[in-house]
């Protein structure tokens, strides 16, 4: 049995608020019996080196902590601080933890908020899946389906069909895991489980829960508690448990 703690969008921005919410989440997880912690993007809010230094200092545990970039991240600063290298190529990484493989895909478009899996990223993922023998979690920042918030759906992944073709051709993919929506959501994608983790920094409001006309200025609820997902993979079955982080 493998237990994956899945969180997303901490948005370290140098503020005490963002720092406190991530510290609260990580303190809770350090007391849990999990095999791996996955953070699906928007590690920082502005992509600054100082923000990545906070990420490096705070997103740590006695189990592997897997990170990937989101639309608020900067590839060059991310590489410099978190990977110790340079360049602006897509940050795609393969990690093994808890008896599973994690294909950490870079779905960012530098300078834009919508997502795209570049041809080199899709080719890399095909190669990973072709050689994989363990269950594989395909992880990216941008959601490849509609999450029913028009604002967030306007900046979702732009080439979901290409991703669907790649993952559906493999028998080893256990699920597709993403972030970006700042809202817990579960669906199917290419016949596979798809789970979006809620946001650590904030939660998006759903149109049918309010009479307000949602805009970028009011769609994010900064008062809601941080949330996360525990994925349990056992005997080929995936079960996902959604939890708020206790205070």
UniProtKB/TrEMBL annotation:
Keywords: Hydrolase, Iron, Metal-binding. InterPro entries: Calcineurin-like_PHP (IPR004843), CNP_phosphodiesterase-III (IPR050884), Metallo-depent_PP-like (IPR029052). Residues 4-183 form the Calcineurin-like phosphoesterase domain. The keyword Hydrolase applies. Belongs to the cyclic nucleotide phosphodiesterase class-III family. This is Metallophosphoesterase. It comes from Plantactinospora sonchi.
């Amino acid at each position: 049995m493998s237990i994956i703690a899945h969180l997303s969008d901490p948005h370290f921005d140098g503020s005490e608020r963002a720092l406190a919410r991530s510290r609260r989440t990580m303190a809770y997880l350090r007391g849990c019996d999990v095999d791996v912690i996955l953070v699906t993007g928007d590690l920082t809010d502005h992509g600054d080196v100082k923000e990545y230094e906070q990420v490096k200092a705070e997103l740590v545990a006695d189990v592997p902590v897997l990170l990937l970039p989101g639309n608020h991240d900067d590839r060059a600063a991310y590489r410099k601080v978190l990977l110790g290298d340079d360049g602006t190529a897509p940050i795609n990484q393969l990690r093994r933890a808890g008896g599973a493989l994690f294909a950490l895909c870079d779905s960012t478009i530098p300078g834009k908020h919508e997502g795209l899996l570049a041809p080199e990223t899709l080719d890399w993922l095909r190669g990973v899946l072709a050689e994989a023998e363990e269950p594989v979690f395909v992880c990216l920042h941008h959601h490849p389906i509609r999450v029913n918030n028009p604002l967030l759906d306007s900046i979702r992944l732009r080439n979901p069909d290409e991703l669907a073709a790649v993952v559906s051709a493999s028998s080893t993919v256990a699920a597709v895991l993403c972030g970006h929506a700042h809202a817990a959501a579960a669906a199917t994608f290419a016949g596979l489980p798809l789970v979006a983790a809620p946001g650590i920094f904030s939660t998006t409001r759903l149109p049918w829960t309010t009479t307000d006309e949602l805009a970028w200025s009011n769609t994010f609820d900064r008062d809601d508690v941080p949330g996360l997902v525990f994925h349990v993979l056992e005997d080929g079955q995936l079960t996902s448990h959604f939890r708020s982080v206790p205070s």
